[in-house]
Amino acid sequence: MKRIFLIVLDSFGIGAMPDSEQFGDVGVNTLRSCQATGILHIPNMIAAGLGCIDGVDCLPKADAPTGAVARLREASMGKDTTIGHWEIGGVVSPKPLPTYPQGFPREILEEFERQTGRGWLCNLPYSGTEVIRDYGEEQLKTGKWIVYTSADSVFQVAAQEELIPLEELYDACRKARTILSGEHGVGRVIARPYVGTTAETFRRTANRHDFSLEPPAETMLDAISRAGLDTLAVGKIHDIFAGRGDTEHVYNQSNLDGLHHTEDYAARNFHGLCFVNLVDFDMLYGHRRDAVGYAKALNEFDAWLGAFLPTLGQEDLVMITADHGCDPGYTATTDHTREYVPLLVLGKAVRPGNLGTLDSFAHIAATVTDLLGVDFQTPGRSIADRIL
Q: Picking from 48-62, 205-219, 250-264, which range would have the lowest pLDDT averaged per residue?
């Protein structure tokens, strides 16, 4: 193949994994919660065979699927964006990244304060919208950082953009990234800017920026770019892989913006991988437990997919997957959920069929590099001969 478009619908899980209860998730199913809204309309993904995937019982099964499909189990011990994408990229993580349900150790925050010159507020697991509602006015009075975390391996810093300039916030997060290493090496340090002057008017902006831990081993991005091919990163991909391995990147303002970037790359005669992350599913709808919004976002993506596929050539391939779940109908928490994810492979050269349940996201990396003729060592196994 000449061009592969790998699109991650961030958090689009399709049902609880066998060990989900060990992660605090009982009976979770992101897809089912979206379908239960009654407004889900995804004819192109259903035609591709989404309803034919093992365990999917809430969608119609296509009589003659247009794609090769599979259910993927996460082999890594996590349910977060970083570990999920690393595994898609070919690196399995047997140990979870550190989390801080009681907040970060005082020595971490004291060093952060020393290096940035500002104090801190909160230091608790918190919803991103609720933390600015509860601490934003105090930040405006004191100028202190709002530091918080979640069930994921993240150190998040919220700052009102007119009080603290974006570059100062980003610089503080770069400093936090160097502080948070070794045993405290969280997956991501996240800059969370917002605007507004009162609890009622505070809202986060699109100027978020992630500062990720470097993958512990070579990923498919490293291998593909080293082979002299293109690795085009759309959305959070550049940040998730700590800028390593992509030859070009662009950030998204929204899912639709990311899809427009994908179209722009498709209009170019590149050779290699276009790796896309669409984070609105997770950030705007999954964590906020907004099943209706999630379903509408899936409808929007599906309509785009129906228009995009006919524009592709014989040597183009589209792979659609996810990195974890974030069930918008699960009210026990607002965190990610430990779920299987789908794999849909579409293109003129694809042999349709159900490939069953595969035991790692890393099979994607093995397959992508195999299809591009790139040498890459990964625990995953290529399924190229089964999909073409």
A: 205-219
